[in-house]
Amino acid sequence: MTALHILVLALILVGFALWVRRRRQQSLQVIETVVFENIGSRVLDDRRDITVFLPPNYHQRESERFDVLYLNDGQEWESLGLRETLAKLTTTGRIRPIIVVAVPTGANRMQEYGTA
Length: 116
Fold this sequence. Notes:
Blueprint: H1 3-29, E1 32-41, E2 46-54, E3 67-72, H2 82-91, E4 98-103, H3 109-113
Parallel strand pairs: 3-4
Antiparallel strand pairs: 1-2, 2-4
Helix pairs in contact: 1-2
């Protein structure tokens, strides 16, 4: 393999990596994230931040109805890659656009969920 072949191959690989990175960033932009801070619960006697993920172009689709997924232990949304997964599944048409409400666990998780 000549130096020219190696250079061309390297340029192709770098170009492909940059293309993949850009596509990933574009897909993440379609999922809007809204955080409602310090929401109180009289039942739990606690306050917490609630994260809501909205489907692409949500504000331009006011008359459209969306299914809602409530995510218990919602503080794990980042480590689960939720935003990336939603973006990929939505933009590829594998799922219909949905709203996800991520409800984090409080300090007393066992009291909230019980010991079932």
